[in-house]
Amino acid sequence: MNKKRIIVLDLASLGIGEAPDANRFNSVGVDTLGHVAAHAGKKLEIPNLIKMGLGSIRWDHEISEIPQVANPSAFYGKMVNRINTKSSGAGLREMFDFDTSLRTLSTMDLMSEKHINISMISSFASYLENQDDTFSLQVPNDSKAFVELSAQMDVQFDGLIYCQPPLLKRLSDEANVDAYAEQLSNIDAQLPNIIEDLSEDDLLIITSSFANDPSVNESITREYLPLIVFNPLNQNGKSLGIKRSSAAVSNALVQNFDIDDIKRDLKPNFLNEVL
C-alpha cells in the first residue's frame, strides 16, 4: 500500500565515505561521517540514527563510534551520484529531477500538475526557490527548521514535505569539525519527535543531497550518501544495498504518488523494498 505522505529530511553535506569515482573529484580518502566521528569520539551522540541503521550501512568499514545494530528500526543503504560535477545544487537536481522526452522536470513539477501538496523548508538553494506551486518556508537555522517541520506535519497530511536543516552545510563549508559533530548530535535528538508525529500513512526518508567532508580542504566531496527509510508499519529494517543514483529518491516519490503517466521503469528505486 502506497503512502499518503512522505517526509524527506536532507542532512545536506553528510557523506559516508569516498565514492567509487572519488579519484576523479579530488576526493580520495574523504569520509565525512568517519572523520567527524573519529575527531569527536564520545562527543558525537547519535543513538537514534544508530538505532535506525546508520552504522549498519558501513558493515564493511565499521566506524567504532557508530556501531551496527542487530535489529535496525529502519531500512538502510547508500547512494552514489552519477552527475559529472560537484556542487550542492547538482546533488539536489539529481535527487529530484525527472527526465521526460521533452525536457527535464523536477518531481515537484510533476506532483504539482497532479495537485499533490508540496512543502519545502530550507535556507534555500536557487534550485528549491524555482519549483512551481510549492509552499516554501525559508529558515535561518536548524532550530527554526525543526519547529516549522513539526508545524507543517500538524497541518499537511498528504504529499511531500522536504526539510533541509541549513547548519550542517554551513559548518562543513567552515571546516568546523567540532561544531559539525555537535550539530549532528542535535539533529539526532530531534528524530524521536518527528517519528512520534508519523502516522501509518507516512514514510520518512533521511538522506543527504551531497557530501562535504569538513576535515579536508575541498568544497564538495564525492562520497556515498546515506539512505535511511523509516516505515511506521514495518520497523524490521533491512539493507537496501547501494543505489546507483540519488534519483532513487525521486523515483520512489514518482512511484508512490503515481505521477508518471508514461509508466517508465523507475530505477534505481527502493519503494517496494520498504512498504
TrEMBL record:
One Gene Ontology term, aspect cellular component: cytosol
A biological process term (GO) from this entry: nucleotide metabolic process
GO function term, MF aspect, one: phosphopentomutase activity
Keyword NAD among UniProt keywords: no
Keywords for the protein's UniProt record, in alphabetical order: Isomerase, Manganese, Metal-binding
Record-linked InterPro entries: Alkaline_phosphatase_core_sf, DeoB, Metalloenzyme
Pfam families in the cross-refs: Metalloenzyme
Origin: domain of life: Bacteria
Occurrences of domain Metalloenzyme (ranges): 6-259
PANTHER family: PHOSPHOPENTOMUTASE
Family, similarity comment: Belongs to the phosphopentomutase family.
Protein name per Swiss-Prot or TrEMBL: Phosphopentomutase
Organism: Apilactobacillus micheneri
